[in-house]
Amino acid sequence: MTSIDSPLPGFSVRVTRREGQVNLKLWGDLTGATAPSLHDALSDLIRRGSLMIVVDLSELSRFRTGGLGPLVSAFKDLRARGGDLVLHAPSVEALEVLEAAGLSRTMTISGAPGALNRQELKVLTLVTRAMHNREIARELSISEASVRQHLSRIFVKLNVSTRAAAAASALRKKLVPLPETQTPIL
C-alpha cells in the first residue's frame, strides 16, 4: 500500500494492488488545484504497466469539473492499451459532474450509489431533508404515486424498510450530500 499526499492540504490518494488490479482510494477535494497529484499517481501506474485501475471516489468531500482531467486522460490511455479505468462509488455530486461532462455514458462506473438511478437519488436526497411525498412530488414535478414507486425501489436497493432507515443509510454511505444545517434564530 502506498499513500500519496497532495502538496496542497485536503487531498490524498492511497494505492493498493490486488489480483492484477490497482485500487486508488481518494480522500478530500478533487478539484483543478488537486488534480495534478491524481494525474501523477495515475500516470505512474500506467507507465508501470497497470491495465486495470479502480478509482474509489467514496471518500471525496468535493468533486469538481477541474478534477476530471486526470481521470479522462487515464481512461483514454488505459483503453488504448486494452485496459480500463473504473470509477467506484461516486457520490451524487460526482455523478452529476460526470453526467454533465457526458462521461457517465462512456466511463465504467461501479457501485454507483446503491445502483440508484438519478431520479431515485433526487428523491432520496429530499427524503434526507425530511420532506413528505407531496413536497417531493412538487419539488421534482412528478406525481405522488411516482414518489411512492421510487421509494419502493430505493427501499429494496438499500435493503431498508423505512424512510428513516433509507435516509440514515444514504447519509452513512455518502450517497447524498449532507443536508444544509440552519442556525436557529434566538
Could you describe the 3D structure shown?
The protein is 42% helix and 23% strand. The protein is elongated and about 55 Å long. It has a six-stranded mixed β-sheet with strand order 1-2-3-4-5-6. The protein has two domains: 2-111, STAS domain (Transcription Regulator spoIIAA); 118-172, Arc Repressor Mutant, subunit A (Orthogonal Bundle), CATH 1.10.10.10. With 186 residues, it is α/β, with parallel strands linked by helices. α1 packs parallel to α2 (68-80). The N and C termini lie far apart (50 Å). It has seven helices and six strands. The model has no long low-confidence stretch (mean pLDDT 85).
What's the SSE blueprint?
Elements: E1 2-5, E2 11-18, E3 21-30, H1 35-47, E4 52-63, H2 68-80, E5 84-88, H3 92-100, E6 108-110, H4 118-128, H5 133-140, H6 144-158, H7 163-172
Parallel strand pairs: 3-4, 4-5, 5-6
Antiparallel strand pairs: 1-2, 2-3
